[in-house]
Amino acid sequence: MSTEIRNKVGEKIDYTFHDAGSERVVVIGHGVTGNKDRPLVLALAEGLSGAGISALRFSFSGNGDSEGSFLDSNITKELSDLDAVISFVEGLGKKIVYAGHSMGGAVGVSVASQDDRITALISLAGMVNTKKFATTEFGEVTPDKGFMWDDEDCPLSQAFMDDLNGIDTLLEKGTSINVPWLLIHGTEDDVVLIDDTHDIHEKAGENCTKLIIEGADHVFSDAEHMKKMVDGAVKWLS
Predict the structure, then answer these.
(1) What total of structural domains would you count in the chain?
(2) Does residue 9 fall inside a structural domain?
(3) Quick one: CA torsion of 77, 67, 37, 40, rounded to 10 degrees?
(4) Is position 4 within any domain?
């Protein structure tokens, strides 16, 4: 079996596998402008593997060292990336848990609502109200000319904005998720507001649990908040 992962258009997906020998593998997807080496992604993967739970962290196409253009990156395209990663892990004979941060969380909700290969779901500051996010964060930026958060390495494309506006919200998809689901969010998140987690928790079934971390920002940058995020995920999975 090939160790390469490629999406449906043939782009190679960069990944790191933390093999703890478990029957489950937690696939970890990052948020917009991130990659598999973002501190919170790395901390979660190492925390899981240290607890005996295998993890695979990857960069969506167009991000990090994965092939593809950042200009093509959006939720809809990243569904194909996650499908390719899930198929790879399934080929290893493993059960799949998905943990997604921010926009990667939106990808997870979209896929888990219709793909029964995902046996459990973790949303880390998960984006839910995508149209609202687009307006709040980038409403004053001109697509195809400006940049996300003034970062010249992250140009804002019209395709990205159209995708977020077209999806609008993932609230109804939340009603279709029947697997165990953990929502983790910080109270001081000013990128994806904690309202997104509260809103989708109301729509989700009885298998959905919330972990609210007081004072945590969008990326759990404080060491104590990062530890609470990792420990919360490990305890829930264990």
Answers:
(1) 1
(2) no
(3) 0
(4) no
Provide the pLDDT for residue 1: 56
- Which residue in 95, 5, 115, 88 sits closest to 54, CA to CA? 95
- Smallest CA-to-CA distance from 119 within 166, 180, 71 is with 180
Share the mean pLDDT of the chain.
97
Rounded to an integer, what distance in angstroms lies between the CA atom of residue 211 and that of residue 233? 9
Owner of token pair 């790395």: 42
Exposed/middle/buried for residue 53 (C-beta within 10 Å: 0-12, 13-18, 19+): buried
The token pair at 190 is: 């000013």
- Whole-prediction pTM: 0.97
Cα–Cα dist 101/108, whole Å: 9
| CA atoms lying within 13 Å on the CB side of residue 222 | 13
The one-character DSSP state at 162 is: H
The reply to whether 7 falls in a domain is no
How much of the chain, in percent, has pLDDT values that exceed 70? 100
Q: Is residue 1 part of a domain?
A: no
pLDDT tens digits for 188-233? 999 999 999 999 999 998 999 999 999 999 999 999 999 999 999 9
Domain coverage including residue 200 = 15-237
Unique residue bearing structure tokens 């959905």: 208
Strands 15-18 and 54-58: antiparallel
Q: Rounded to whole angstroms, how far apart are CA atoms 20 and 167? A: 37
Look-up: residue for tokens 């996650």? 82
Which of 88, 91, 38, 29 shows the shortest CA–CA distance to 61?
A: 29
- DSSP 3-state assignment of 178? coil
Residue 111 sits in a domain whose CATH number is 3.40.50.1820
